[in-house]
């Protein structure tokens, strides 16, 4: 897949570590106040998801929209919304070194740890 090389497309930048992964897809996130992190379009699981260079995604980001990531087999995101608690419990210290991003959470620190996990077929909620 071609990359947007992590270019700043308005307020949001998609890191090249994500844009360069094969088969990973991006979802338009509703930017309206009070809509949280909801997808802007129905059907995002099937066909309303985009590669990193899709005009619909790039236009959405340039207009101040946000994005979500639909992972692919073998690429998973450990969503550490309760970062401080996970640190206290020693869980963060046990994670391997990996690509990590700070989330947009404003109420507390949140991080996403991107991991290659072969054979994992479905989401695990802790």
Task: Please provide a written account of the structure.
The chain has 126 residues and is of the alpha+beta class. It folds into two domains: 1-72, no CATH class; 73-120. It has four helices and five strands, in the order αβαββααββ. The strands form two sheets. A three-stranded antiparallel β-sheet has the order 3-5-4, with no helix packed on it. Strands 1-2 form a two-stranded antiparallel sheet.
Please render the helix and strand layout as text.
Blueprint: H1 16-19, E1 25-29, H2 55-62, E2 66-70, E3 75-80, H3 83-88, H4 91-94, E4 100-102, E5 111-116
Antiparallel strand pairs: 1-2, 3-5, 4-5
Number of strands: 5
Tell me the helix content.
10-25%
Query: What is the helix tally?
Result: 4
Secondary-structure element order, N to C: HEHEEHHEE
Question: How is the largest sheet built, in terms of strand order?
Answer: 3-5-4
Beginning-to-end CA distance, first to last residue: 32 Å
Tally of domains: 2
Q: Give a quick account of the main beta sheet: strands, pairing sense, barrel closure.
A: 3 strands, antiparallel
Overall outline:
globular
Q: Mean of the pLDDT scores?
A: 83
- Sheet/helix structural class: alpha+beta
């Amino acid at each position: 897949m071609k990359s947007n090389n992590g270019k700043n497309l308005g307020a949001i930048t998609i890191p090249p570590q994500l844009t360069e992964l094969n088969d990973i897809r991006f979802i338009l996130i509703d930017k309206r106040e009070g809509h949280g992190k909801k997808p802007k379009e129905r059907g995002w699981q099937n066909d309303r998801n985009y590669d990193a260079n899709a005009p619909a995604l790039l236009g959405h980001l340039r207009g101040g929209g946000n994005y979500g990531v639909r992972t692919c087999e073998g690429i998973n995101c450990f969503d550490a919304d309760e970062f401080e608690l996970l640190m206290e419990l020693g869980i963060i210290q046990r994670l391997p070194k990996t690509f990590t991003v700070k989330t947009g959470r404003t109420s507390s620190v949140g991080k996403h740890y991107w991991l290659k996990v072969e054979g994992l077929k479905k989401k695990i909620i802790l």
